[in-house]
Specification:
With 460 residues, this protein is α+β, with helices and mostly antiparallel strands. The protein is 42% helix and 19% strand. The chain contains 16 helices and 16 strands. Strands 8, 9, 10, 12 and 14 form a five-stranded antiparallel sheet that branches. A four-stranded antiparallel sheet has the order 13-11-15-16, with no helix packed on it. A hairpin with a 2-residue loop joins strand 4 (67-70) and strand 5. Helix 4 packs antiparallel against helix 6 and helix 6 crosses helix 8. The longest helix is centred in the middle third of the chain and has 26 residues, at 143-168.
Length: 460
C-alpha cells in the first residue's frame, strides 16, 4: 500500500520550547490509572509520618541523631550497607521496568509528574479549559483575571507548603513539626528547609514543569540505553495513520486517499511535554499514555478502530512477537531479585547490638599492689533496638581472671554507651606475654541479643 506523504510530514519537528504548554484535560483509561495511582501515592506520602508504632512515629529519619527508625527497625550509621543495597535495588528495579515498559515511571509515579498534573488540574478548575487559559493569558489585566491568578497561585502555594511539611515530617517528628508551625515557634533552620522545599515544589510543578523532565532530569538522557526492540513504548502506527488529514465523520478515508489519522492535533494538546508522538519516538516522551486516550476518543467518534496510538514495541509494529525472556530484561530482573535476597539475608543475620573494644593507649597494662596484672579497656556498646536494655559482660580466654565493670550497664534505645572495663589476672600463670581473650556482652532482657568481641591481654 502506498501513501501520499507530503514532504513536510517527513520533517521531525523540534521539541516546543518557546512559551508555556497549555495541557488539555483528557479523560480515558490511562488517565484514570494515573489519577487513581497518583492519589494513592500522594496520600501515602502524606500519611506515612503519621503512622504510630509502639508509642512512636513509625518512620523517622533522624539525621541529627544519625538514627533511622522504620517501624520496629532502627538503622544506625553502622547499618549503611542496607541503605546502599536499598538504593541499588531501586535502581535495578527502575532499569527492569524501563526495559520492559519504557518510561512509565516518569509517566505514572514520578513525583514531578504527579505534582505537575495536580497543579495543572488546579489551573483547569480555576482558569478554565485549555482554550480559556490561552485566551486569559492574552487579554489585558482586569479584576477577573487578577482574581483567577491570585486564587490559582494561592492554591499552588498551599499545596507546596503541605508538600514541604509532609516531606520534613520524615526527618522531624510530625506532631512537633506541625505544632511549631501553628504556634509560630518553628526554629530558624527548620523554617529555612520548609520554605525552601515549598519554593522548589512551587517552582518545579508550577513553572518549570516539563522542563525538569526534558532538560534537568538525567533519566531522560540515558533511558534509551535500556530500550531495545522489545520495549513497550507509546507508538504511532504510521502505516495505518498516514496520510493524515481532516475529513467528515461519515466520509470514507479510502476514497479520500487518507489514513485513519484525522489530524485533530489532540495528541499534541494533551501531551505534558508538548511533543507530537506522530514524529516518532522522542526522549521527551514520558510514556504517560495521554495521547493514547485522546486518539482513542477521536477514533471512537469516527467509528474507527482504536489503537492508532498505543503501547507497542518496535517488533510488534513490524508484525513480529515481543520476546519476554530477552537477556537484558532477565539481567535487570535477576540483579533486582539478587539485591532483594541480599537485604533479606542481611536483615536475618543482623544483630540488634553493636560493640567495639578500645585499649587504653597510655598503658597497655599495669601491675597493682597485689602483684596482679591489669589491662584497662573501653567497651562501646550500641543498642540498636527501640527499647532500653541492660547488659552483662563476661570474659573468656584466661582462667581465674576477674573483671572489674560497673554493676549496671543500661543503654537507651538507639544510643551508644562507653563502659570502662578492667581485666585482672595473675601474670605468672600466663604462658605468653600476649594472650587472646574475648568479651561476651549479653542483654539481660533477651538471650538472643548477644555479641562477642575479641582482643588481647598483655603482661610484662
Amino acid at each position: 500500500m502506498k501513501f501520499d506523504i507530503k514532504e513536510q510530514d517527513l520533517i521531525i519537528k523540534p521539541y516546543n520550547q518557546e512559551g508555556p504548554i497549555y495541557i488539555r484535560e483528557q479523560k480515558g483509561y490511562f488517565q484514570r490509572i494515573r489519577r487513581y495511582l497518583g492519589w494513592v501515592l500522594m496520600l501515602t506520602f502524606i500519611a506515612i509520618p503519621w503512622i504510630p508504632y509502639d508509642g512512636r512515629q513509625a518512620v523517622l529519619l533522624d539525621v541529627a541523631s544519625q538514627k533511622f527508625t522504620l517501624f520496629g527497625l532502627t538503622l544506625l550509621p553502622q547499618d549503611f550497607m542496607i541503605l546502599a543495597m536499598l538504593f541499588m535495588t531501586g535502581a535495578f528495579a527502575l532499569f527492569f521496568v524501563t526495559n520492559w515498559l519504557g518510561r512509565v515511571w516518569c509517566g505514572y509515579t514520578c513525583p514531578q509528574t504527579i505534582w505537575m498534573l495536580m497543579f495543572t488540574w488546579v489551573e483547569h478548575k480555576v482558569e478554565g479549559n485549555r482554550n480559556q487559559r490561552i485566551k486569559l493569558d492574552k487579554v489585558d489585566w482586569s479584576v477577573s483575571k487578577w482574581q483567577k491568578k491570585i486564587t490559582k497561585h494561592a492554591a499552588w502555594l498551599l499545596i507546596s507548603l503541605l508538600t514541604s511539611m509532609s516531606f520534613m515530617a520524615y526527618f522531624i517528628p510530625a506532631k512537633s513539626l506541625y505544632m511549631s508551625l501553628f504556634t509560630l515557634e518553628m526554629s530558624g533552620i527548620v523554617s529555612f528547609w520548609v520554605f525552601l522545599f515549598a519554593f522548589c515544589t512551587y517552582g518545579n510543578a508550577g513553572f518549570l514543569r516539563e522542563k525538569m523532565c526534558t532538560v534537568a532530569c538525567p533519566y531522560s538522557r540515558f533511558q534509551s540505553v535500556m530500550f531495545d526492540k522489545d520495549t513497550l513504548v507509546v507508538t504511532y502506527d504510521q502505516a495505518r495513520g498516514e496520510s493524515r488529514g481532516a475529513r467528515k465523520r461519515k466520509a470514507d478515508p479510502k476514497e479520500l486517499g487518507l489514513g485513519d489519522c484525522v489530524d485533530c492535533n489532540l495528541c499534541v494538546e494533551v501531551c505534558p511535554a508538548g511533543i507530537d508522538i506522530r514524529n516518532g519516538l522522542q526522549y521527551e516522551c514520558i510514556n504517560c499514555g495521554l495521547c493514547i486516550d485522546a486518539c482513542d476518543s477521536t477514533m471512537e467518534k469516527f467509528n474507527y478502530q482504536k489503537g492508532l496510538i498505543r503501547y507497542a514495541s518496535e517488533k510488534q509494529m513490524e508484525g513480529k512477537t515481543t520476546n519476554p525472556f530477552r537477556l537484558k530484561l532477565l539481567g535487570y530482573g535477576g540483579l533486582t531479585a539478587l539485591f532483594v535476597v541480599g537485604m533479606v539475608v542481611w536483615m536475618a543475620m543482623r544483630t540488634p547490638i553493636e560493640a567495639s573494644v578500645i585499649r587504653d593507649r597510655n598503658a597497655l597494662y599495669r601491675v597493682n599492689f597485689e602483684g596482679l596484672v591489669e589491662n584497662p579497656y573501653t567497651l562501646s556498646i550500641i543498642n540498636k533496638t527501640q527499647h532500653s536494655l541492660s547488659y552483662s559482660i563476661g570474659i573468656s580466654g584466661i582462667e581465674e581472671a576477674s573483671l572489674q565493670v560497673p554493676e549496671t550497664i543500661t543503654v537507651e534505645a538507639g544510643q551508644m554507651k562507653r563502659v570502662p572495663v578492667t581485666v585482672v589476672a595473675d601474670g605468672y600463670e600466663l604462658k605468653s606475654k600476649v594472650t587472646p581473650i574475648s568479651f561476651h556482652i549479653q542483654a539481660l532482657e533477651d538471650a538472643d541479643i548477644a555479641i562477642t568481641k575479641e582482643t588481647k591481654f598483655y603482661r610484662d
